[in-house]
Design a protein that fits this description.
The chain is of the alpha+beta class and 253 residues long. The chain has 6 helices and 14 strands. The protein has helices at residues 46-63, 99-105, 134-139, 145-168, 216-219, 225-236; strands spanning 6-9, 13-17, 23-28, 31-34, 39-42, 70-73, 78-82, 85-86, 89-96, 112-122, 131-132, 171-185, 188-194, 202-206. α1 (46-63) runs parallel beside α6 (225-236). Bound molecules: adenosine-5'-diphosphate (ADP) and magnesium ion (MG). Adenosine-5'-diphosphate (ADP) binds at residues 8, 10-13, 15, 24, 69, 81-84, 86, 179, 181, 194-195.
Amino acid sequence: MARRKKIYEGKAKILYEGPEPGTLVQYFKDDATAFNAEKKAVIEGKGVLNNRLSEFFMTGLQSIGVPTHFIKRLNMREQLVRQVEIIPLEVIVRNFAAGSMAKRLGMEEGAPLPRPIIEFSYKDDKLGDPLVPEEYIIAFGWASQQDLDDIVALALRVNDFMSGVMHGVGIKLVDFKIEIGRIWDNDFHRLVVADEISPDSCRLWDIESGQKLDKDVFRKDLGSLTDAYTEVARRLGVLPSNVTHRPRPTLIN
Ligand SMILES: Nc1ncnc2c1ncn2[C@@H]1O[C@H](COP(=O)(O)OP(=O)(O)O)[C@@H](O)[C@H]1O
Ligand SMILES: [Mg+2]
């Protein structure tokens, strides 16, 4: 097989040129990074789980009319996506205080917010993805006011969908981050959800026990990340058959 052209290698994924113009292949790696890549590890099976979970969320979003870059999953670790012009923002939606917001405002982790709060950080690893006000985004031309209005509307639809799906399997969607891309059609563009939606980019807490089922397990050394992601996939019914996970002892009455 001819060698594919690698377009970009990031912290969690590799992008290859796709089979047709305007398409890309996204390869999900097992690499985990946190704290702006200060902490790194290879977590066996993570890429396979995130590929499946991102497919599940993106196809679900498409089925309720939210446009995404997703075309189809190709194999265990790869999916075909539409190539987009990524808006250099992390769009963060919060339902409960956690992480940097809890720290910044001295709030208790898990405190409910009066309404979903959307914030933007500028995607730049060297700068540590700094939080930016809308004023900067418009002044520096990263997105127009119209884009921003559309991004907020998209992000809230993603939030409602994700919150509902997660609630259905006993998981609280505390917060998440998405990336938005532009697809150009002559002089016009439309916005789509791009990149990935997975436990790497969400905070997911078990509703009953409060147990963390997301990348905080890795950030805070709370146990096996693969077990946590496998649990999310299992509850959603998207567990790939050949992901190895340690069988647990079962009690027989
Ligand atoms: N459909 C797409 N078209 C073009 N670029 C994309 C698309 N989806 C995601 N990307 C970009 O590809 C990269 C994915 O790799 P990742 O490992 O997440 O990178 P990073 O370390 O920059 O977060 C990100 O920079 C993301 O913005
Ligand atoms: Mg990324």
